[in-house]
C-alpha cells in the first residue's frame, strides 16, 4: 500500500519493476494500492487522551482479511 499524500514522488512503474526484479509477479504475488494518508494513531490512558476513528470508502471497508485467508487456504 502506498500512502496517498498528494505528492507525486513515487513511480508505480518503478515499484512494479523493482518487485518483479526480486522475483515477485504483479497481480499474483502483490498489488499496489493507494490508501489514505493516515497521520495519527492514538492510544493512551492519560486523562484527556483522544480516540480517533479512521473511515475509508465502502470498497476498502468491505475487505475481509478472514475471507481472503480462507480463500488462500482452500487454494493450497
Could you give a short description of this structure?
The chain has helices spanning 12-21, 58-61, 65-75, and strands at 2-4, 34-36. It has 76 residues and is mainly α.
Main structural class: mainly alpha
Q: What's the gyration radius in Å?
A: 17 Å
- Uncertain regions spanning at least 5 consecutive residues: none
H and E order? EHEHH
The count of strands amounts to: 2
Strand order of the largest sheet: 1-2
Most strands sheet = 2 strands, parallel
Strand content: 5-15%
Q: Report the span from N to C terminus.
A: 25 Å
Which descriptor suits the 3D outline? extended
Number of H/I helices? 3
**Fraction of residues in helices?**
25-40%
Give descriptors for this structure:
single chain; 76 residues; mainly alpha; two-stranded parallel ribbon; extended
Question: Could you explain how this protein is built, in words?
Answer:
This protein is mainly alpha-helical. The protein has one domain. The chain contains three helices and two strands. Strands 1-2 form a two-stranded parallel sheet. Strand 1, helix 1 and strand 2 form a beta-alpha-beta unit. The protein is extended, with a radius of gyration of 17 Å.
Question: What does the secondary structure layout of this molecule look like, with pairings?
Answer:
Layout: E1 2-4, H1 12-21, E2 34-36, H2 58-61, H3 65-75
Parallel strand pairs: 1-2
